[in-house]
Specification:
115 residues; alpha+beta; 4-stranded mixed sheet; 15% strand; binds glutathione
């Protein structure tokens, strides 16, 4: 499963608590799934999908495909021809659109994909 790569950080800390805090933060960064949302403006389904991800404290990268034709092509290819927005990917797994994301949530399957 692909995870976000994290740059190696060099830091100095004053005490153990600070070191633990920094290590925990770094671990969380590394273990977070990589989420991509292809979206556009004035899109109710995009807003609704992003609201659910935000409620879950899931960070995501967002591409406005109405302003970026390369990203639009990428979205269509990655989603096997689907052209509606949003299209959502978690760790390169194609989730689908807003309804698909909410369906995973109501089946109790979303949290495991986000951790
Ligand atoms: N069922 C889809 C609906 C998505 C949808 O209809 N999105 C609109 C924008 S809010 C869209 O892409 N419309 C263009 C089209 O239908 O071709 C989902 O849950 O994501």
């Amino acid at each position: 499963m692909e995870r976000k790569s994290s740059p190696i950080a060099f830091f100095s800390v004053n005490n153990g608590d600070e070191a633990v805090k920094l290590l925990r933060h770094t671990y969380q960064e590394i273990s977070m799934p990589k989420i991509v949302v292809y979206s556009g403006p004035h899109c109710h389904f995009c807003d609704k999908a992003k609201a659910l991800l935000k409620r879950k404290n899931a960070e995501f990268e967002e591409f406005n495909v109405t302003e970026d034709v390369d990203k639009l092509d990428e979205m269509i290819k990655r989603s096997n021809g689907r052209m509606t927005i949003p299209q959502i990917f978690i760790d390169d797994r194609h989730i689908g659109g807003c309804d698909d994301l909410y369906a995973l949530e109501s089946q109790g399957k979303l949290d495991e994909l986000l951790t």
